[in-house]
Design goal:
YojJ-like (1; alpha+beta; 18 strands
């Protein structure tokens, strides 16, 4: 598999110049949109910023390490590292101005008259030729004034957005059409719901931030990956059966409030075991239309590998696992515990409220 390599700055250690080399799948790394920037020192994506943060931590650990120290070389929490990467990458949108990342988190955390903060903000210098002003504030509002920015966010709709230079908001405006001679792709911040926002460039989502945790954009489950995941659990399943499970998965992935579809060879037995933690149903073939209805309630839907439903609204159990992720919430972690503890071949499709979709166990 082709790989792309990155290295840290060399550090003098025990008479040697030591550097850390990080290798990633070239296909995976280049599979995400990146800014058209060839300057290596500047992070052109969240992934590049995370690589820089990791290697910087490695170099720091080497400088501070003792050859007799038995402690891990890296002890920084990875969520903290990702937040640092988010701030680092946000410097590209903010033209080197610190504070935009944290300001966006502060605004996203506020409600206005009970409503979630939903709106649009364009990052551009004042009097940018690609911005058509709609309303200009006599006194620009500092981005540190989160409450005022949150209130002004109510004014944005469709393509009309707040305009900020990453330090102040100075009015409302919109980006000219791509055919306009002054057009230039600009960074935009989309506030999508409470505690959630996205950074886009040229209509590409470059970073999703949920509860101050940056993430790479993730689309719907890929059909080929899903088929591969199913075959790992049920090698004998025919293509038609996999295609039907894929239809159910596609339907589950449209549930905006999140859900879990559990495909288990032991669905019947598990429905009986979880009798007090689910609504058992008379076995029947699950259809996309019915799945759309039953995912309106909390809990997982239990089907076997043939698509036969045995329970809805199931509260999953399982032993704690070291693979848990505190940044992901209860739905993801309960599904992970269940899958890790299951005695049957199982595949869980986890649709989170923040739009992330996971297959558990993950496909290597």
């Amino acid at each position: 598999m082709p790989r792309i390599s990155f290295c840290s700055l060399p550090v003098s250690f025990n008479g040697y110049l030591v550097l850390v080399v990080l290798q990633l799948s070239s296909e995976a790394y280049h599979g995400y949109y990146a800014l058209p920037d060839k300057i290596v020192a500047r992070a052109n994506s969240l992934l590049a910023a995370a690589v820089q943060e990791f290697l910087q931590d490695c170099a720091r650990a080497l400088r501070e390490s003792d050859s007799d120290d038995a402690h891990p070389v890296l002890d920084r929490d990875y969520n903290e590292m990702l937040r640092a990467a988010g701030r680092r990458f946000m410097l590209r949108a903010a033209a080197g101005t610190h504070g935009l990342y944290d300001a966006c988190n502060g605004v996203a955390a506020l409600r206005h008259e009970g409503d979630d903060g939903i709106g649009l903000m364009i990052v551009a210098r004042r009097h940018h030729p690609a911005i058509v002003p709609v309303l200009t504030l006599e006194t620009p509002i500092t981005l540190r004034d989160h409450r005022s920015i949150r209130k002004l966010l109510e004014l944005s709709e469709d393509n009309t957005a707040l305009i900020t230079d990453a330090t102040h908001v100075f009015g409302l405006g919109y980006l000219v059409e791509e055919t306009h001679p002054s057009y230039e792709p600009l960074f935009m911040v989309h506030f999508t719901k409470h505690y959630s926002w996205e950074l886009t460039h040229a209509d590409h989502i470059m970073m999703k931030v949920v509860s101050n945790s940056p993430r790479l954009p993730q689309g719907r489950v890929d059909a080929d990956n899903f088929a591969h995941a199913v075959r790992l659990q049920w090698p004998e399943l025919l293509d038609a059966g996999i295609a039907y499970l894929w239809r159910l998965t596609q339907e589950a992935s449209t549930q905006s409030t999140g859900t879990i579809l559990v495909i288990s060879a032991g669905a019947a037995q598990e429905a009986q075991r979880l009798t007090r933690q689910c609504f058992r149903v008379a076995p029947r073939l699950m259809t996309p239309a019915i799945l759309r209805l039953v995912t309106n309630i909390d809990g997982a839907v239990l089907v076997d590998q043939n698509g036969i439903c045995h329970a809805i609204g199931a509260i999953l159990d399982g032993l704690a696992t070291a693979k848990g992720d505190s940044s992901r919430g209860s739905r993801y972690n309960s599904a992970l515990r269940y899958v890790e503890s299951s005695q049957y071949p199982v595949l869980a499709v986890v649709v989170s409220e923040d739009g992330l979709i996971d297959l558990l166990p993950p496909v290597s």
